[in-house]
Design goal:
3-stranded mixed β-sheet; 2 helices
């Protein structure tokens, strides 16, 4: 499952990097994915929207077993 999640993250990574940010997978535990937003994304006021409407949506499309994506 971790490999599928990494592949889904790789789909959104170019858009984040275009804005000076990035995302890294920290942990997968009990159907919850923990990620760290870095660079410009780390302090961006839109980070929560990016996380839920972008990263989480794509991960859940690719890996339906995932229930939630949280930032750490």
């Amino acid at each position: 499952m971790r490999e599928k999640i990494e592949a889904a993250i790789d789909r959104v990574r170019p858009a984040l990097q275009a804005d000076g940010g990035d995302v890294e997978l920290v942990e997968v535990k009990d159907r919850v994915v923990s990620v760290r937003l870095t660079g410009a994304c780390g302090g961006c006021p839109m980070a929560t929207m990016t996380l839920k409407n972008g990263i989480e949506r794509i991960i859940r499309e690719e890996v339906p077993e995932v229930e939630e994506v949280v930032a750490v």
